[in-house]
Amino acid sequence: MAAIDALLKTMLEKGGSDLHLTVGLPPKARISGALQAIGTTPLDAATMEALLKEICPPKRWAEFLERRDLDLAHEIPGLARFRANFLCNHWGQAAVLRQIPAKIMSFEDLKLPEALKKLCHLNEGLVVVTGPTGSGKSTTLAAMIDYINSNLTKHIITIEDPIEFVHPVKKSVIVHREVGEHTESFGAALKGAMRHDPDILLVGEMRELETIKLALGCASMGMLVFGTLHTNNAPKTVDRIINAFPADEQNQVRVMLAGCLAGVVAQLLCKRIPKGRCAVHEILLTHEALPNTIRSGQISNIRGIIESGSTEGMITMDNSLMNRVKDGTVEAKEAYMKAANKALFAPLLKPGDLTEGH
């Protein structure tokens, strides 16, 4: 057993999701959204290097030393998989390891909105699942791919850095590819995927211009493409995709995006009453007014499209938060802190809510 596994097991026993390792500090875990120490002894540089090097293949370790950043997966057989990010900071080497649940959660397990099933039944287009780091995007995407795998016969290619959820054989054929292990880059994998006759592509993260451009291209060619971004609502997601391109290409990109954007699912995690966390969503689906809104650059009008499409399953983030407050899942203070329109939630706050630590 690797030395780091003892820390990971302690984290899991305490209900944690992320292990944070920094030189000069004791190991810490994120438990119900807050960082808590799970040891008392600060890590020194030698201990840190030993912990990280032990779980990293020699080729990837050399890559880490050269680039000073590395993503990889680590598994404790029979217990859990983890997505690890190695990095260097002011104090030396460091790492964050996030648990990947051993069981792929279903729509029912996660209580995902039924509207997301509509996206799973599409034959083509771009679907973006978006939210800040740690908001559960990968878990939601895994549930959507599992739903497809359980109900449809599709050829699915996933491109991730690293591979997180490994889907069992059901009705679909799923090919998992890991950047750095099975392919040089997201771009190279996407170029190859065009020749592999996929029905569905899952792009772990649309970080770079080339990846976004190729993902748009695949969606325009008749594939269903799922991707992720680090934005927190639908209008910002559309802006982010367009603004990733040079100014002289943006008109062309608007036209392409208008023709292929099939949906945006923005996700946030909130503290659940009495403990744990739950997801809230903003959902944008295809609508007759959406293509012209994107082509004309009137991105602010997307909010109105979502509000008018509630019968189709669309919902704004603020309305999703309000629903969770009304059903007793989330405290008003938590919703207020996450909301875009804070005035909507201010009347629901208790005296002293805004003076207490959040």
Task: Draw up the topology in text.
Layout: H1 3-13, E1 16-22, E2 28-31, E3 34-37, H2 45-54, H3 58-67, E4 69-76, E5 80-89, E6 92-100, H4 107-110, H5 115-120, E7 125-130, H6 137-151, E8 155-160, E9 173-178, H7 186-193, E10 200-203, H8 209-220, E11 224-229, H9 234-243, H10 250-260, E12 261-271, E13 277-285, H11 290-295, H12 302-308, H13 317-326, H14 332-338
Helix pairs in contact: 7-8, 8-10
Report the top-level CATH class of the largest domain: Alpha Beta
Strand content: 25-35%
Classified in CATH, the superfamily of the largest domain is: P-loop containing nucleotide triphosphate hydrolases
The third-level CATH topology of the largest domain is: Rossmann fold
Sketch the major β-sheet: 7 strands, mixed
Distance between the termini: 38 Å
Using the alpha-carbon principal axes, give the shape. Answer: globular
Radius of gyration, CA atoms, in whole angstroms? 21 Å
Examine the secondary-structure arrangement and name the CATH architecture of the largest domain.
3-Layer(aba) Sandwich
Q: Kindly state the number of beta strands.
A: 13
Mean pLDDT: 93
Number of helical segments?
Answer: 14
